[in-house]
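Standup notes
- HV: blocked on the assembly model, inputs below
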Amino acid sequence: MNDASKGMRVAVTGASGSLGRRVVARLCASAEVGSVLALDRTPLALEHALLESRVCDVRDTDLAEHFRGCDSVLHLAFVVERGSRDARETEAINVGGTRNVFEAAAAADVGQVVYASSVAAYGFHADTDGLLLDESAAIRGNPGFYYGEHKAANEHWLDGFEAEHPELRIARLRPTLFLGLESERPVRRLQRGLHFYLSGPAPKMQIAHQDDVADAFVLALEKRAGGAFNVANDEPITLREMGAAMGKRSLRVPRGLMALHQLAWRARLTEVDPAWSELASGPSLLASGEKLRKELGWQPRFATTGDVLREMSRRPNARASHAVKAYFGPLRRLTRLFGGLPASRQARAESRGMQGSINLVFTGEHPSLWHFTLREGRLGVHEGSSETARATISMRDATFRDMLAGRLASSTAMMTGKVRIRGDGEMGFLVGGLVGGFGRLRRAKGLTGLPARRYAAWVLREVQKR
Amino acid sequence: MKFSLFYEMQMSQPTRAREQECFRNCVEQVRLADELGYWGVWEVEHHGLYEYSHSSAPEIFLSYVAALTENLRLGHGITLTPACYNHPMRIAERIATLDILSGGRVNWGSGKSSSLVEQMAFEADVTQLHEQWLEALQIVPRMWQEEVFQHQGRFWKIPPTQVIPKPVQQPHPPIFAACSKPDSAAEVGRLGIGALNFAVGNDEYLARKVASYREAVAAAQPSGYQKTDHFAATPSALCLDDDHLACEVGMRGARFFAESLGVYYFGGDRPTGPLDINREPLCPEDLEEAMAFRGAEDAPAMSVVGDPVHCKEIVSRFAAAGVDELILVMQAGTVPHELVMESIRTFAEKVMPDFAG
């Protein structure tokens, strides 16, 4: 049915999740893959010549229709944080959905399924506390912790299913905790100046990098692997040691405060199930990634948990010049507080009809990446770049400083190519706006203009430092 | 491709005498363009934008040059149509009169004004400018075509009236609109009227913009007026045999243009007196860099500046993007009249023939 020369056709469930997006992007770049079918309840916001995105649910009865013609299925769909979903629905997706996926794959004559299990299937138990588990360890999730229970139930069910379907090659990947840059909440926490940890017993933890986990899934697919594989890196550390690994001051939080989390969860003030934070006080669950390295040649870019934490805690614009940080830092904070910068009547009138985001890239020895959002006349400033930007403006950091100091006109900078714009050329107005707006802050009049003048004077001092 | 001239009536640090001289010079430039076979002239309407644009009564200027030219198309680029600036009936009457006196040479562009300086001077309600523009766009062409016109709209209510005179061109003069925002080319295309695109971008971007306009205009089914499928771009320009001189003068002018525009459109202040902008030539290093950047792949196609060889290359980039007309902005604040004349001549003799037909 499939032309081998064109590469495999791969379907991915949970494709719009944070791991799913990474896996899909890597599949599209794989030489073995001819086409990718992204399946999720929310459409995948990614475009690629090899990619087709469809909206569906792992509980759908006609799932096999989507799988028909596929060589492989990567099953990643799973409820990780159940939020306000009720327990029955969570189980229907995690357990019922997984069975449905495997049965549909068998019905559609798919050759291979790579399934995202978890080390949580082994469970956190006193008798394995601190032991480095290999793939032969017993599967016994922790009662009461839905995530581990569901992962364990699926593994047990799979044992039977696998025996009945010898024609289907099944790989079960069991990752430890992992983080990617999109894991917004925990990453923001890691990027704080201080590190908090709970008092009392401190289990060791393993945290992998999401990109390395995504690599493991693609490897399992490319090598048509069967069987179980832990996806785990080296040198587990305790919550308490994490601060030191990231070079931060640590602060102990009394264990009694955990009760507050329980209360907040019951009052629906938090989306995070306390079942997750309770893991931070039980026995350690540690897994060995040896088999994955040896048999599939997995080479994680972040080999230890410390490496991952250091990467995650690094602010994206850590190398930005003081001038750029001074200029954009407060604007970014204002954006986060008020959803955008204050805009004059004129600014709103002028930007009518302009929507979308603009990337601003500073190059040179102080690189940094920002993006601006424009919505209903209000400008917002954010760190990092936007994938959907309609224009990218790039310049050397020194060029920006020259413009702020009044040594270079923005018009001259654009005419000479010191400032370059890709995409919508009109978005170049932003450069003149950043520089002209700064001039206006310096000239702000009266008492109400004092904060603006102070801010401008401070930025200018930073600009002139070098 | 068609070639035209664009007029803001721009001047740097004007005195009354220099202002008068500028108007007379512009008349002379337009007469030369007519003799040399340019397609048209486009005249803006702005109010109170000191130095940037002294063209506040374009209908008078166009009437005057209509009498002095033979073939040149006379373009309003654009007429401000919101209620506070021009009543639609006055627009219909003036355009029809000019069309009669010029023998059917009028191009009518429309727009809504976007500088707060003029909006405040005329007490415009900025939240209604767009809707007022749209309504005027619907009724002006009907006034030209209907013997007895009447209208019950949101902004204008006109009882049965014989709007006279009627224009020469049938069914009416072609209709255009200004587009300066990223998405407005497609919007103008959906209305089925010609696009006067004041925006810039690199070749790929321009090509995409033209394509989105074409797609929209092809699907448009305007009622009440005839469709115009035409995409014009407005680069700054100066074409002289001496490449270095053309760049020195032309880029200085282009910078004056860009910075004075910036003050009125993105400035936030309400400036009076001479503008706080660069009027001097670019310093030698910047000039050299800017000259070299002209040919770069990601350089925005925004200025047709240089000797005829360079100008041809840049014009061919516009042609490749699918642009129908280049409206050249040669008359920029700091550019001497004699060099504008020489540029009009050089461009007509050495660049235009390559793009004829």
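- HV (later): unblocked. Chain B touches chain A at residues 114, 116, 119, 126, 130, 180-184, 199-202, 205-206, 251, 254-255, 258-259, 262, 265-269, 278, 282, 286, 289-290, 292-293, 296, 298-300, 302-303 (CB under 8 Å). The radius of gyration of chain B is 20 Å.
- Next: hand off to the docking folks.
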